[in-house]
Amino acid sequence: MIKAITFDFWNTLYLTPPNRTLHDIRINGVTRVLQNAGYELSQEEVSEVFLQVWAHVYREQRAYGREFSPPQQLRQILQRMNVNISSSIWEEAYYYYSGTLLEYPPRINTDVIETLPRLKERYKLAVICNTGISPGSVLRKLMERDGIIGCFEHLTFSDEVDCAKPNRRIFEYTLEKLGVPGIEAAHIGDDKLTDIVGAKMAGMTAVWLAPGQNWKVPEADYHLQTVKELLDLW
Questions:
Q1: Among 33, 67, 120, 131, which is least packed by CB within 10 angstroms?
Q2: Cβ-count burial of 21 within 10 angstroms (0-12 exposed, 13-18 middle, 19+ buried)?
Q3: How far apart are CA 146 and CA 131, in angstroms?
Q4: CB atoms within 10 A of CB 10
Q5: 10-residue block means of pLDDT along the chain (234 residues)?
């Protein structure tokens, strides 16, 4: 019997921004801060190093479940460019790197706002999120702004627990907080590796959210087109 449901964040609760607008805003902001600090760096140079670091972070998360928090990411970027800045300039650069999401917020996914309160009446709900560039502190503010944070009993962000999906530890940590064993919990997400394989390794029911897809993921127990379909599963 399912007693708890955990949610992926990106492309499950919120949709990843579809273009490079936010990326360019971040890189432009960081570049201006470094230029004002006396470093002759172009936006293209900063962007190239950012992409190198992010590719490394992405591989480490997916292959080993290792977490590199946003501050660690920015430090690696600055180190690769031989940049050494004061703490006040660091804070300004870090805001552009991670905090601008709140100025250009992503769109909440279809049916999420209407569905979460109904699910909360029947299940314990939680979030398990690989934070990427925006830390849990920023994502909490986004959820508060959209009025959905109160639907969840616990929020697990990878930058706060020092491990990432598909590492089973991040699932087991969340289940412990909910007081529910894996066999009585389901996880829903869009990523076949981090969400589906990760959830199965933790002994959970795995729900693949893939709008528009008509093929199946063998490891998934269910395939949904929208979050709203959770209401009719159990």
A1: 120
A2: exposed
A3: 18
A4: 20
A5: 98 88 91 96 95 94 94 96 95 95 94 98 98 95 98 98 97 98 98 97 97 86 97 94
